[in-house]
Amino acid sequence: MTLIAILLGTLAAGIGSVWLAAALSFGVLARYTQHMLSLAAGALLGTAFLHLLPEAFESGVDAQALFLTLLVGVVFFFLLDKAELWHHGHEHHHDDAGHDHDDEHDHGHDHAHHHGHGHAPERMAGGWSVLAGDSVHCFGDGILIASAFMADLRLGVIAALAVLAHEVPHHMGDLMVLRLSSGTRKAALLKVTLAGAITALGGLVGYWLVDLLHDYLTYFLVVAASSFIYVALADLIPQLQKRLSLAETLAQIAWLLAGIGLVTVASILAHTH
């Protein structure tokens, strides 16, 4: 009975939060694509600095060990991005090499093709970083929910609802990043849904190994935080650093603060319950 409750609770929290975030991001807020970029940056930074890191440092683990984990995490996600960029560049190089012996008409068409795409928005390379961090975060959420259910059924339900609520603004940020890196909404939704499903895996593993894994939960939080900080500062914030009108700049700042505010309110409510 407890195991079934853990599975239902983790699936509802992990996948339900993703679909609710998608309904907001791609439905109600779909017309505000540029503003969603600011919201995503705020949500990721808010999740890292106002939820994950404070919770990790409250555990009593040595601060130097946690900062070292944070640093290693940021460097790891930087290298992951480098590998992703190198992979795409390598594929592009081979594609170009295949056209070396085309006729003059094909060269003209290729030139027009590249010229036509010169002004298209460049895809971001932060997709794998945010997915990896999100998966680690969801795994940790699953362990927390499993721990709550094993203590008391009602506490488990409250924990699952709290995780669902505070994950929605965070997943809105994830969906925006992956929408830009994947190119389609369906691909972004599928990837974040799979990451959300890791919550159930964390719940299952937590059911059997809750005492052992609880000691490492703090490090899961810091690794997840490092990925969100990296993606926000390396991929999202640079895209916001453009010369804009005063009204556009104020709107950009407002949406950034809204992302931080949403995560802050959700975290406060989650901790209250």
Short description:
The protein is mostly helical and 273 residues long. 86% of the residues lie in helices and 0% in strands.
Question: What distinguishing features does this structure have?
Answer:
273 residues; mainly alpha; 86% helix; 0% strand; globular
Oligomer: single chain
Shape: globular
Please mark out the parts with pLDDT under 50 across 5 or more consecutive residues, or reply none: 87-95, 99-122
Counting DSSP H or I runs of 4 or more residues, the number of helices is 9
Main sheet overview: none
- Determine the mean pLDDT: 77
Distance between the termini: 24 Å
Rg over C-alpha atoms, rounded to the nearest angstrom: 21 Å
- Please estimate the helix content: over 70%
Structural class based on helices, strands and sheet pairing: mainly alpha
Order of helices and strands: HHHHHHHHH
Please report the total strand number as a whole number.
Answer: 0
Strand content: under 5%
The total domain count is: 1
Give a written overview of the molecule:
There is one protein chain. With 273 residues, this protein is mainly alpha-helical. The chain has one domain (2-93, 123-272). The protein is 86% helix and 0% strand. It has helices at 2-28, 33-57, 63-97, 104-116, 127-151, 153-182, 185-214, 217-240, 246-272. Helix 3 packs across helix 8 (217-240). It is globular, with a radius of gyration of 21 Å. The two termini are 24 Å apart. Residues 87-95 and 99-122 have low confidence and may be disordered.
